Amino acid sequence: MLREFIAATVFGTMMIAGAQAADLEGKVLKVGSDTTYPPMETVDETTGEIVGFDVDIMDAICAKINCKAEFVTTAWDGIFAALVQGEFDVVVSGVSITGERKKTMDFSEPYLIVSQAILLRVEDEGTSLEAFQSGGKTLAAQTGTTNAQLAEKLVTRDNTRLYDTFAAAILALQNADVDGVIIDGTSAHAYEQEFAGELTAAIKGLESDPLGIVFQKGSPMVDAFNEGLEQIKADGTWDALTAKYWGVEN
After folding, report:
1. Measured on CA atoms in the order 129, 134, 136, 139, is the torsion positive or negative?
2. Kind plus residue range of the DSSP H or E element containing 160
3. Which residue, among 120, 141, 116, has the nearest Cα to 131 in the 3D structure?
4. DSSP structure class, residue 16
5. Where does the Ionotropic glutamate receptor C-terminal domain start and stop, copy by copy (predicted)?
């Protein structure tokens, strides 16, 4: 159960009577995503398909507003520049909505709110947050993320180690090059399962981030996606998907 990591975003649940439903006329959308972060998005090793909560959310919204999402794996480093340059129609990759990002991109309303956690080696699971804040311990995070910003806030820039990929941060923790890794709470359980007996999310419930679908600045699709998001929230689809991935009914 990850109830402490998931909070229902507040949306209106009543559609305006007689209002015209959004219709993207079957548009195929190229969706940029760093597909290395289960359960948000990852590549199924058996089928080669991109799967995860973000994929299901996009499919559900597109079913409401008549579009099709085609996810494309891309590295996190450069993903927003690629969006701005028109390589993708949208980016969906567990992206936190921040004021800085909103200067150059547009966001949907939040589709999920997540709190952050710290992954530790199992033998260090008794380590407290205060032990990190008091100095001397190091935290790893993926560069360019709100995880990285939190790491610097907790242990200063000098004790923060940044990696181009989340997998590299995990490897650093396994090799004892760092003392912990900042991770979104929604993904913590997946990593605890993958590295059972080795890694644990022992420090939980840190800062919360709203996640949004990312568009080019001025995109006319924002309103349509907000409408689709409101509909899947109202009809129970959003609740069913959070239950599917985290066993939580909201």
Report:
1. positive
2. strand 160-163
3. 120
4. P
5. 28-248
Please give the structure tokens belonging to residue 10: 């507040």
CB hemisphere CA count around 185 (13 angstroms): 24
Cis geometry, peptide bond prior to residue 39 (ω within 30 degrees of 0)? yes
For the question of whether the overall pTM of this predicted structure is more than 0.70, the answer is: yes
Instruction: Residue 206: name the closest of 39, 4, 53, 3 by CA.
Output: 4
Going from the C-alpha of 81 to that of each of 13, 34, 75, 104, 166, the distances in angstroms are 34, 14, 11, 10, 19
In what helix (H) or strand (E) does residue 64 lie, and over which residues does it extend?
A: helix 53-65
* pLDDT tens across the length of the chain (250 residues): 444 444 433 334 334 333 457 999 999 999 999 999 999 999 999 999 999 999 999 999 999 999 999 999 999 999 999 999 999 999 999 999 999 999 999 999 999 999 999 999 999 999 999 999 998 899 999 999 999 999 999 999 999 999 999 999 999 999 999 999 999 999 998 999 999 999 999 999 999 999 999 999 999 999 999 999 999 999 999 999 999 999 854 3
* SS3 per-residue string spanning 97-118: CCHHHHCCEEECCCCEEEEEEE
% helix, strand, coil for the chain, step of 5: 35, 25, 40
In whole angstroms, how far apart are CA 50 and each of 29, 73, 228? 15, 8, 22
Element (H, E) at 50: strand 50-51
